[in-house]
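hey so i finally got around to running the thing on that chain from the lab meeting. sorry it took forever, my laptop kept dying and i had to restart like 3 times. anyway pasting the input first so we r on the same page abt which one it is
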Amino acid sequence: MHMHLSTLEAGTGPVTGSGPLAPATSAHLVVAGECPASTSVPSLDCPSLRTMRRGVELVSFGARRLRLDADSYLVANCTTTVSSAYDGADGVSPLLIAFRDGAGTHTTAFAFVETLLPRSGAVGHHLLQIENALQTGLADAMWWDERIAQLQGAVIDAERLLRGREGAMESLKPATRRELLRRVLLASDFIQSNYEQPITLAQIAAAARLSRFHLVRQFRRVHGLTPHDYLTAKRVAAALRLLSQTRLGLNDVATHCGLGTRSSLFRQLRTRQGRSASALRSGGPPTMEQLPPCSTFA
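ok and heres what got predicted. didnt touch it at all, straight out
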């Protein structure tokens, strides 16, 4: 598949060309569009936010494996060695944003936790605005600078909120609270990376290296949900995305999101959304098939 790349630097118009996805070196960098799954994931030397519009990114931090899809985002630090690849039978649609200042230096002063977080709240809002601007081909350099600065602020606020949850851990020692939070986040990463498959509480606890009792207790303190409720919420979010963005049959949607059967899909949608699958599909957002080819904006 031929890919079309365009580069927009601050204060300039677009410069077009073709070739593999590759990072620019000035200001902020945004990589987005439609690509074959074989496309190389850009390697960056600054903090970067990653998410997907379609398909998944398989991310490895050493022995740790994450599966990033369109319901979540991940911020990787510049000092972390990341190995990743895209996966998707019909191609993928990634969105990657690298945070730099105008001189190309890092703008984030602290290390991120590097965990999968839901695309919600202010972060989700700014990502949607960026996706819409990419879809319409907006080339206003000041708008991009402001929007990415707002996104960066929202990402940092979300990071601080997450770190603040250490205080909910059952320990008097700060180091132990940090470790408990890290283990709970390993559990939620495991859920988000494996929700399509049948998974058990014992498997989640093993991923977090906690007993099932301590997992449930600490998980609820961090996420406000039990692991089972968190897993179900993730599966329902995936089902809603598939209903709105694909024409998969309802049995296939149930299988792909881990709910198993059509009747289970119906029950969860009725319980959590108050609407049927058909109603949700007809009233959902437009598909993402109109996104431009792979593009880089710096």
